[in-house]
Amino acid sequence: MTTVTSPMAGRAIGLSAVPDPVFAGAMVGPGTAVDPVRGPAEAVAPVDGVVVSLHPHAFVVVDPDGHGVLVHLGIDTVQLNGVGFETLVNKGDTVTRGRPVVRWNPAAVEAAGKSPICPVVALEATRESLSEVAEDGAVTVGTLLFSWR
């Protein structure tokens, strides 16, 4: 079983509360979302694994069992063209849970007119394959967001 932990501090809100129909409808995959604490922050790896995709606003880590986890920093933040985001690892790097991957500022994202809400999605999964999904309540870095069996 893979446990996926929060890449940032904030509040778990569930995917259905994400202000984007693709994420809210779990079209990318099931999971949850975190409304992050405002201010400068680092998004960390939610699992041990390899960074297989890395953009300033999003990254995917695949764990040793082949489970891919997408962390998307805000909604429509690709439109910011990387401004306000700093990648701290490289694609292909092996990371451990909790290692900083991207430095960013959710308050600056919000000031730019974008939602700072962060979907954390189990790629190529079904809702039935997840358990213990956090959909409300405060989370800190490392809090369990969901388990994947």
Describe the protein's architecture and organization.
This protein is mainly beta. The protein has one domain: Distorted Sandwich (Glucose Permease (Domain IIA)). 7% of the residues lie in helices and 39% in strands. It has an eight-stranded antiparallel beta sheet, with no helix packed on it. β6 and β7 (68-72) form a beta hairpin. 40% of the residues are buried. The model has no long low-confidence stretch (mean pLDDT 97). GO terms for molecular function: kinase activity.
The rounded Rg comes to 14 Å
> Helix/strand-derived class?
mainly beta
CATH superfamily label:
Glucose Permease (Domain IIA)
CATH first level: Mainly Beta
Helix content: under 10%
Task: Give the SSE map.
Layout: E1 2-5, E2 10-12, H1 21-24, E3 31-36, E4 41-44, E5 49-55, E6 58-62, E7 68-72, E8 85-87, E9 94-95, E10 100-104, H2 106-111, E11 118-122, E12 130-131, E13 138-139, E14 144-148
Antiparallel strand pairs: 1-14, 2-3, 2-13, 3-11, 4-10, 5-6, 5-9, 6-7, 7-11, 8-10, 12-14
What characteristics describe this protein?
about 40% strand; Glucose Permease (Domain IIA); transferase; about 150 residues; mainly beta; PTS glucose transporter subunit IIA; three-stranded antiparallel sheet; 14 strands; single chain
Summarize the structure.
The chain is mostly beta strands and 149 residues long. The protein is built from 2 helices and 14 strands, in the order ββαββββββββαββββ.
